[in-house]
Amino acid sequence: MIKGKCHCQTVKYESSNDSESAVFCHCQTCREINGSAFGSSAVVPRKGFEIISGKNSLVGYESSSGKKRFFCSNCGTHVYATSSKKPENIILRIGCIDGNHNIVPTHHIWTSQKASWYDITENIPMHEEW
Ligand SMILES: [Zn+2]
Ligand SMILES: [Zn+2]
């Protein structure tokens, strides 16, 4: 079971399944959308994922064809994303997940677009793309 929320706690979700995979993404879109050096995301099955409050406050933005990112319209938190390439999945932003979970990203992806001002120091696999 995974629970998460946006910063203002308007949007809350639950996933009855654990995360299947997790990555750090250094692509330009993730950097801009997160306002940071990279995005941190974890995949859960769509089946078992539920928005338990704040559904009407979610707004979607298609950052690239088929990739839709969902934000809280009150606080601006990027809560999760979906991709038409893998419609069976929900891509959670790990920073929004509650509590002491054990989700640890295992790969750095899109390092070809990595910020020049950030050096990767973990010894985990890196991929120029994904
Ligand atoms: Zn919010
Ligand atoms: Zn990315």
Describe this structure in words.
With 130 residues, the protein is mainly beta. It has one domain: Metal Binding Protein, Guanine Nucleotide Exchange Factor, Chain A, CATH 2.170.150.70. 5% of the residues lie in helices and 40% in strands. The strands form 2 sheets. Strands 6-7-8-9-4-3-10 form a 7-stranded mixed sheet. A 3-stranded antiparallel sheet has the order 1-2-5, with no helix packed on it. A hairpin with a 5-residue loop joins strand 8 and strand 9. It is globular. The structure holds zinc ion (ZN) (2 copies). One zinc ion (ZN) binds next to helix 1. Pfam families: GFA. InterPro entries: CENP-V/GFA, Mss4-like_sf. One of its GO terms (molecular function) is metal ion binding.
At the first level of CATH, the class is: Mainly Beta
Describe the main β-sheet briefly.
Answer: 7 strands, mixed
Number of strands: 10
CATH architecture: Beta Complex
Q: Which ranges are low-confidence, i.e. pLDDT below 50, for 5 or more consecutive residues?
A: none
State Rg.
Answer: 14 Å
Q: Write down the oligomeric state.
A: single chain
| Approximate helicity band | under 10%
Strand content: 35-45%
Ions and ligands:
zinc ion
The average pLDDT score comes to: 97
Q: Quickly give the structural class.
A: mainly beta
Strand ordering within the main sheet:
6-7-8-9-4-3-10
Anisotropy-based shape: globular
Per DSSP, the total helix count is 1
CA distance, first residue to last residue: 27 Å
- CATH topology group: Metal Binding Protein, Guanine Nucleotide Exchange Factor, Chain A
Topology pattern, helix = H, strand = E: EEEHEEEEEEE
Tell me the domain tally: 1
InterPro entries: CENP-V/GFA (IPR006913), Mss4-like_sf (IPR011057)
Organism: SAR324 cluster bacterium
Protein name: GFA family protein
Pfam families: GFA
